[in-house]
Amino acid sequence: MDITLFHGGIFFRDYIHVSDACNLMTSLMRDSEVNNIVNVSSGDKTKFIDVMNYCNKKLSSKSNFISVEPSDFHKIVQVKDMWIDTHKLKTKGLSVNYNIWEGLNTLL
Questions:
Q1: Pairing between strand 46-47 and 12-13?
Q2: 35 burial level (CB within 10 Å; 0-12, 13-18, 19+)
Q3: CA 9: distance to chain centroid?
Q4: What is the reported pTM?
Q5: Domain residue spans in the chain?
Q6: Residues paired with 3 in a beta bridge
Q7: In this predicted structure, what is the pLDDT of residue 33?
Q8: What is the DSSP string of 2-15?
Q9: Which of 14, 33, 46, 67 could serve as 83's disulfide partner, Cβ 3.0–4.6 Å?
Q10: Cβ proximity of 3 and 64 under 8 Å
Q11: pLDDT (tens digit, 9 = 90+) per residue, 81-94?
Q12: Coil, strand or helix: which one is 74?
């Protein structure tokens, strides 16, 4: 089955394993000041097509990726590239336990 990807998957995202997200939020709720915003994420930018290729290979999929341009609606409401500054998180001595590839391996 062919899989369509906006921009051919050539865009960046910042991925975080759900257990890391939960652990980091729990730590921040216990030990942070009230009304202080701290971004919870890995802080790493990863190209979406790399994630798709990794999963395709890991699952021995025969799917092909087809590049499509997003609709006008998606061009307005969706950010093409997104990753988060985790400086505040790191200054608190907090970080993720899983990188994107380790996280995917727990799922695949």
A1: antiparallel
A2: exposed
A3: 13
A4: 0.86
A5: 3-107
A6: 65
A7: 87
A8: -EEEEGGG-SEE--
A9: 14
A10: yes
A11: 999 999 999 999 99
A12: helix
3-107, superfamily in CATH?
NAD(P)-binding Rossmann-like Domain (3.40.50.720)
The SS3 assignment for 69 reads coil
Burial annotation 65-98 (CB, 10 A radius, 16+ → b, else e) = eeeeeeeeeeeeeeeeeebeebeebeeeebebeb
97, pLDDT greater than 90: yes
* CA dihedral of residues 52, 57, 58, 61 (deg, nearest 10): 90
CA dist., res. 9 & res. 13, Å (int): 10
Round to whole Å and give the CA distance between 3 and 99: 25
Q: Which helix (H) or strand (E) holds 65?
A: strand 65-68
Q: Residue 32's pLDDT is what?
A: 85
Q: CA of 64: how far to CAs of 8, 11, 61, in Å?
A: 11, 18, 9
Let me know how long the chain is.
108
Q: pLDDT value at position 94?
A: 96
